[in-house]
Design goal:
Layout: E1 4-5, E2 28-29, E3 32-36, E4 42-47, H1 52-56, E5 64-68, E6 71-72, H2 78-84, E7 86-87, E8 92-93, E9 95-98, E10 104-106
Antiparallel strand pairs: 1-8, 2-7, 3-4, 4-5, 5-6, 5-9, 9-10
Amino acid sequence: MTYLTLPDDKDEEMSDKEQGSPDMPTKGWIGLKTVRLNDGIHRVIRLALGSSSATSGDIQIGEEITLVDEIEASNLPTESVEILLSGSPGSSVCLHLISLGGVGRDV
């Protein structure tokens, strides 16, 4: 199992709203974007250049995210999944992914 560490650098497309609050002034992000399909499945649609998701080589565009830190992702709003994929810098997140070929694994 590979844990993705949340760096303290932000993606250039991150808005001021996403950069944190007084309770969490700096927010880490693993560097992937998802889309929620009509059946509730979340698919990876983008890996940010230089992010832990892209540099690890463990995540591919098109894969389905089923669990984020043991929390079922299907049917969650995209915003909720984005929150689960972010956290304080240096923290880690564990994902269960299903490849386009139907093979499940933890990263």
